[in-house]
Task: inverse folding
């Protein structure tokens, strides 16, 4: 696990496309807020901001195919989006020690970009990524990463529902099943390497009910929070 000097009260919900990250981030935010710990929510890519334009061009296939776009270049498009978001939006909350909850973060590059490299280059990629975002750019390093481990075939079925069978609405990543299947291997590798908490989200091909997954997510968050110093604004 990279432990830079700027580890923060930042919880990341990570998972493949269609794994239920937004649902779980919403449920976790509700539960923590109800228990007296207000949460600042963020999400990446930051589509509402022009910082994500290179990411949007990449996902639309405007820069090249999945194989053509250099892994380090593609990763950097996302890193820049995060840096701009941090600087212009949530750095103050973070420095004041508020609890931040992110739907995707640097960790998504480890799942979705690293996989395009041969496995013998994965350790080098993870070191490069942590150095770029946490050390050089000074982005906060998450204190807790929860990986929602959904079988890629199941998440693909959930994505199909989201798009109602319209293939043209899928982005560069979602359109490639082999790629999505491979991402799980990269994600589990990164989870082991960086010490993420992995929560199994399906039994064979059937997803567990969101409330059941939420209880597991909440237990991890509460266990981690109990070891943290609360911010004064949390009302403790
Ligand atoms: C945030 C982030 C996302 N990604 C990938 C994951 C997704 O395949 C894609 C778009 O993310 P996202 O918008 O979460 O997917 P969707 O809304 O279509 O479900 O970008 C990275 O490769 N690196 C990153 O840092």
Result:
């Amino acid at each position: 696990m990279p432990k830079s000097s700027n580890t923060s009260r930042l919880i990341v919900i990570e998972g493949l496309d269609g794994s239920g990250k937004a649902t779980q981030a919403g449920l976790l935010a509700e539960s923590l807020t109800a228990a007296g710990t207000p949460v600042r929510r963020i999400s990446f890519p930051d589509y509402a901001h022009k910082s994500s334009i290179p990411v949007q061009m990449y996902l639309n296939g405007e820069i090249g195919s999945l194989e053509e776009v250099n892994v380090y270049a593609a990763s950097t498009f996302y890193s820049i989006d995060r840096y701009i978001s941090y600087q212009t939006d949530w750095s103050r909350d973070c420095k004041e020690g508020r609890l931040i909850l992110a739907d995707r973060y640097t960790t998504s590059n480890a799942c979705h970009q690293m996989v395009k490299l041969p496995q013998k280059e994965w350790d080098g990629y993870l070191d490069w990524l942590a150095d770029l975002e946490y050390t050089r750019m000074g982005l906060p390093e998450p204190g807790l990463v929860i990986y929602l481990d959904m079988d890629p075939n199941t998440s693909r079925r959930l994505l199909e529902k989201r798009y109602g069978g319209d293939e043209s609405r899928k982005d560069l990543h979602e359109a490639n099943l082999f790629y999505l299947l491979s991402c799980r291997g990269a994600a589990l590798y990164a989870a082991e390497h960086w010490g993420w908490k992995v929560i199994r989200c399906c039994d064979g091909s059937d997803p567990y009910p969101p409330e059941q997954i939420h209880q597991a997510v909440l237990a991890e968050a509460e266990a981690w929070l109990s070891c943290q110093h609360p911010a004064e604004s949390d009302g403790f």
Q: What stands out?
A: The radius of gyration is 17 Å. DSSP finds eight helices and seven strands in the chain. The first strand starts at residue 10 and ends at 15. Strands lie at 10-15, 39-43, 99-103, 144-149, 197-200, 202-203, 206-207.
